[in-house]
Amino acid sequence: MATPAEIVRAHFDARSNRDVAGASAMFGPDLVLHLPKFVPFEDRNGLNRLVAVLDYVLHHTDGTFASEVVGVLGEGQVAVALLAVTATRDGVAFAHHQAWTYRFAGDLVAEAWLHLDRPEAEIAEFYGGVTQRSTEDASTP
Length: 141
What we know:
Blueprint: H1 4-16, H2 20-24, E1 27-34, H3 46-60, E2 66-75, E3 78-89, E4 92-105, E5 108-116, H4 120-126
């Protein structure tokens, strides 16, 4: 059985290769997300919301959004991933760090938290200046 840290690394490897199925494999069916309030698609839940948000940032950065794993720590049923994120929007480069905390139930993530290193308003402005988006604004479910 893989450790939580190994599962998280495999997730980000799949995500960097745009392998949605592979990246989605670590999330349980009842995934609970804890995202900052400015993150769009609040009316969606779990993996559906995570996919919509990733699609949104890829679209608004013309596919330049990228995250590099700086490190992953895991112990017991918890893993934390630190990411260096870069993107360009309308010719403006932007970089920040994210920390994701994952709580596992067996081999699947049951709950995830996103932590940011810059003010939420600054990040929201770069990714489109929105605080909420409705479901019909998503280009993928």
